[in-house]
Amino acid sequence: MFDALANSSRLRMVRILLRGPLNVSEISTVLGLSQSNVSHSLRKLLDAGIVVRKGRGIWVYYRLNRQDPVNGMILDGISSGMKEIENYENDMSELRLCYDKRRSEAREFFDRVASELDDVSYLMPDPEAYLEDVIDMYPAGSTILDAGCGNGELVMKLDRKGMSVIGVDQSREMLSKARKKIAADCSVCNVELRLGSAEHLPIADSSVDGIIAHMLLHHLSEPSEFFKEASRVCKGNGKCIVIELTPHEDFNLKRMQGDLWPGLDRNEVREWMLLAGFIGIEEIGTDDERVFIISGVLNERRV
Q1: pTM tops 0.85, yes or no
Q2: Residue 90: partners with Cβ closer than 8 Å, 6 or more residues away
Q3: Chain centre to alpha carbon of residue 141
Q4: 297 three-state secondary structure
Q5: Would you say 145 and 201 are in contact if contact means Cβ atoms under 8 Å apart?
């Protein structure tokens, strides 16, 4: 392990992976190293158990392995001294550009294909199989945030159940489509749509009773950041429910839906929620093995 870390390039890799998973191409771009150099160094870190590799083909991402307690202590030490490792300012600047590029690509994708997504909805699990049960977990009269509201289907369902709804999406085209749907339905009366990122929600602190992230996280450049924002905007004991794809290898789904991640690990999602202050975390069963649903409530002491 110490042999693997006795190299400035590998220490720089660990430093940028502290922020979240990256693929070989992204690591190469951020650090200004050749992909062959990066691959060789990652093999050293893999063999030492410092990183783990997830996915296949173009979806291979590397993340730090914190499951081992010794690893955790060493990674905490690197984190506390990360500014002392060479090229700190430049690496952090390039890492920000990397994440900005991810966000930009996702936003541009949805702006470009907003009118076509309904045509490829057959690639996704049928939401009618679970959404009603999820919505019923929120009492009428609640103020609910639909993060990544897309074309507005879910905000309309929530409104019809007697809730006040704030829908947030980063795509102007998707929001335009949602507004047209809502305007055409006279029964919808208590919905507000806002332009913004799920990682930087345009919502005041402690202002919503509940949050739903329906098929959102696999589109985000930094999924873990969403839960920090969810914790900020949610009231104490407010419920956050995540509905996500399990890990998959369906290239057509990635290509047609603009996914950044090929599904997510449910245990990783649980960890993100716990770190953000959500407790009572439980999984809600579904009949579709492609989907998992996890709920948690915000610890009132964290508010």
Answers
A1: no
A2: none
A3: 28
A4: strand
A5: yes
